[in-house]
Structures are given as structure tokens and as C-alpha cells.
Amino acid sequence: MIKNYDILVVGGGPAGATAARFLAQKKYKVLLVQKSLTFEKPCGGGVLLKTFDEFALDKAKIAHQVNTIKFVAPSLFGVDVSLEKEPLAIVNRLEFDTYLRTLAQNEGAEVIEGYFKSYDGLLAYIKTNTSELRIQAKYIIAADGVNSTVRKAVTGTLPKRVLTLYAKVEQPLTAKCEFWFGRDIAQGYYAWSFIHNNGTHIGLACEDESNVHTYFGHFCEKLGLKYIPKARGYYIPLWKDDLYRKDNILFVGDAAGQVSPFTYEGIYYAMRSARYAAEAIADGDLDNYQQLWQKNLKKRFKAMELLQKLLLRWDWIIERVVKLLHNTKVHQAALRFWSGKSTPKSAWQTIRKIIKLLSQKTL
After folding, report:
1. Is residue 275 within a helix (H) or strand (E), and if so which, with residue range?
2. Second label for 240, Cα 20 to 30 Å away, from 107, 138, 158, 264?
3. pTM
4. 233 and 164 in contact (C-beta within 8 Å)?
5. DSSP summary character for residue 147
6. Taking CA 39 as the corner, what is the angle to CA 38 and CA 43, rounded to the nearest 5 degrees?
7. What is the pLDDT of residues 192-235, one digit of tens each?
8. With 90 as the cut, is the pLDDT of residue 150 above it?
């Protein structure tokens, strides 16, 4: 039996749940398929507080509000930066994702547990615990993450990616969000220590997969842990601005690699992308999805990408950057850029300003 919907959304994380919610609000018949309704994505759970106002979310879902972040240089020199004007929210991903799916259901979207098997150009085949469904939909939104089965099936590709290693530690190592840098713990990326539930979420991203456990051990030593906790690996996508849609299938969030370079924030940008995709469908112009995304986010992502390449490859530059953050004007400007309150006229303009600051002899 073939079941008909206006929209099939594959993946029920922030991207998929937000797309389903907005489209159901517009009275489309929406089916959202989530592989596991009890899956908790490995994630520090950091999201800009403005997300809750922008998407009309219940702030009771915030587990912690972080008003200070700490940047730690390879020499262990650290700088605290106040977030009083731009707080960061920490959410429990299982609870948060469940809540977002509930919002979609409340608007009329149908949510089921199952996984995408294949697509023949007309029908999508969905496997549940009890049956196999054949779904005919006018549009499909692929929001099924870095290992997107939809993307693999229809394009033969997956997003470029980097390996992260992470663990939950029962000890409350910090009441902040800490970002640690250095080639001995995170080549070209960063390690993190975030307040999380009753303990701490720690992890790192590393391009040298063969030695990732060695780097993780070094990081645990720097944190002062007397043991190395059992860690799990998970890939996060790298943004390449190379895929928005194929025919009637739109790709959003991790499935499209829409994670901010440098900071690797994914939740907020997944939800923004989902909103743009929903607007394009409602407007009847699927190409408008790419246009909206690039108009609003591409300059920011491009600047972040160049900043990462410039600032995180050499420890001596990282040391100077962290020292720069002592300057109130510098860290306030950085926070405005990070929070989206300021947008560079061009990525290279941002780079020129950073190079000028780094070249100061007083550092």
C-alpha cells in the first residue's frame, strides 16, 4: 500500500523537526521519520540563547545557561570571556530533540520511528519495526545527519567530515564552556570541556584519526583527570557549500554539511537551514532555499573557514590570539561576530583585520 504525503522528512533532530514543524504550520501533510526516538546525539549541547526567542522555544528546556567561556592556549595560558550580553544555553540533546519533535506533532506532523531504505525516484521505502512503508511525497527533506542514507542513495556522496572523540565525565570539571587549543590535543581544531547535566562533557576533533586516542589522553592530562574515561567516536561534517537539493529533495543540517567552520556549531544553523528550506517549499521555488541560505549565512561561514585555516594551524598564532582576547574591544567584537550581530563585508576583510591585530608588537 502506498501512503501519500506532501512532505517526507527523514531525520528528527533539530533540522528535521524544525522543518516538519514549520511545514505542518502551513497545513502541509508531513511525515517525519526518525531512526530512533531514544537516540541521544553525541554533542556538547551548546546553542546560542537567541535560538529560543528566534524559534519560540521554551527556555525551561535549557539545562544550563553559560555566562563565561574560557579559551586555553597551548601553553595553558587562559582567558575568560564574559557572555553576559550573548549567553550560551546548554541543552540535553535527547530531551531537546524530543521536545522539537513534539512541537512538530502539535502542529499536525506525523512522527514515526523507522529508517530510510531507498528511493526509486517516485517512492521512498521506509522500514519500521513492524512493516515496510512505501511513501509518495511531493518533496523530501533529508535531515538524517552526517551519515545521511538519503544523500548516499540519491547522490552517491556523504559530507566531508572530521572525527571527534568524546566522553561524559561525572566530575563537574567546570561551570563554563572551555575551548582548548594546541597541536598536541587537536590538530587544526579544538578540544572542549562543557558543563553538562551533573558532570562535564569533554572531547576533541582531530584530523589524525590513527592517533586520536593519544591526543585524547593528552587532553585528559591537561584537564587534571587521574584516569582516561571511556571515549566514543563520532564524525561531524565539514562545510563545503556543495549541496542544497537534487530535484525535489532538499538537504539540511548535517546532511548538507551546514555546521559552522571554526566553532562547529550545528544546532542553530540546522534550524535556520530548515526554516529556509520550508520557506522555499511554501513559495513554490526550491532554488530559493540555496539563495536564502547563501544570502544570510555564506559570508559568515566563509569567514569562519578562513579564520580556522589561519588561526588554528600553528600554536604560536593561537597563543597570540588568546592574548588578544584580553583586550575588551577585541573580545566584544569577536562575540558580536560569533553571535551573528555583525556580519563581515567579506571574508578577506575579516582576515586582514585579524592579521593586523596579530602583527602588533605589544602582544
Report:
1. helix 267-283
2. 138
3. 0.90
4. yes
5. T
6. 135
7. 998 877 789 999 998 889 999 999 999 999 999 988 999 999 99
8. yes
